[in-house]
Write a structure and sequence with these properties.
- The protein is of the alpha/beta class and 211 residues long.
- The protein has a single domain (6-209), classed as 3-Layer(aba) Sandwich (Aminopeptidase), CATH 3.40.630.20.
- 39% of the residues lie in helices and 20% in strands.
- The chain has helices spanning 23-34, 51-65, 122-131, 148-160, 178-209, and strands spanning 6-13, 40-47, 69-75, 82-85, 87-89, 115-117, 138-141, 164-169.
- The protein has a 6-stranded mixed beta sheet, sandwiched between helices. It has a two-stranded antiparallel ribbon with strand order 5-6.
- The radius of gyration is 17 Å and the shape is globular.
- It starts with 5 loop residues before the first strand and ends with a helix.
- InterPro entries: Peptidase_C15 (IPR000816), Peptidase_C15-like (IPR016125), Peptidase_C15-like_sf (IPR036440), PGPEP1_Cys_AS (IPR033694), PGPEP1_Glu_AS (IPR033693).
- This is Pyroglutamyl-peptidase I.
- It comes from Pogonophryne albipinna.
- Keywords: Coiled coil, Cytoplasm, Hydrolase, Protease, Thiol protease.
């Protein structure tokens, strides 16, 4: 096993509602074909649209892979751009999932903070990807929608102390193909890894300055 390799886990969601083919999982499979370069070990996983499954699956992905970064991808019927979510929210989960369930508490983690921000500066990722001339529009949002996407993001942020990201994609063909979305995810995640590296170098330098 090559220890210099970094591990990244990327998830997409399974079908729900009118999304009989979930653009997020198609995009993640396209990303898997492209890869993230030889330095990165990429694992992908399809997440069913069920609160209780998310509660067990997300921690198991962290335990199994010890990733440097986990990126969850979801579809939004309202999205027209690839949207980077800055934070996950704890309360307000009233929508029923695929097994007609929603949490009694209507929250992810009882007693957890209302909102957890990703350690990744999404504005910065957005600027960098936009200026790279990818041909896919990218934007930033502070509201992941209080359904399984938001629920998964909050659960992951809570576990990872903010070392997670969430990306919303539009439905296929509105306007982007699966290949377009895969390329966009590749560019976005490469920028995220770059920013994490810079942040860690900074922390490392600061630690050396304290005597």
């Amino acid at each position: 096993m090559d220890n210099s390799k970094r591990t990244v886990v990327v998830t997409g969601f399974g079908p729900f509602g009118e999304h009989t083919v979930n653009a997020s999982w198609i995009a993640v499979q396209e990303l898997k074909k492209l890869g993230l370069g030889s330095e990165v070990d990429l694992h992908v996983s399809e997440v069913p649209v069920e609160y209780q499954t998310v509660q067990s699956l997300v921690p198991s992905l962290w335990k199994k892979h010890h990733p440097q970064l986990v990126v969850h991808v979801g579809v939004s019927g309202m999205a027209t751009t690839v949207t980077l979510e800055k934070c996950g929210r704890n309360h307000g989960y009233k929508g029923l999932d695929n097994s007609s369930f929603c949490p009694d508490s209507q929250c992810c983690i009882v007693g957890g903070p209302d909102c957890i921000n990703s350690v990744i500066d999404m504005e910065s990722v957005c600027k960098r990807v936009t200026s790279s001339g990818l041909g896919v529009a990218v934007s930033v949002s502070k509201d992941a929608g209080r359904y399984l996407c938001d629920f998964t993001y909050y659960t992951s942020l809570h576990l990872s102390h903010g070392r997670s990201a969430f990306v919303h994609v539009p439905p296929l063909g509105k306007p982007y193909s699966g290949e377009d979305l895969g390329r966009a995810l590749q560019a976005i995640i490469q920028e995220m890894l770059e920013l994490i590296d810079q942040a860690e170098e900074k922390i490392h330098c600061q630690q050396q300055h304290f005597h």
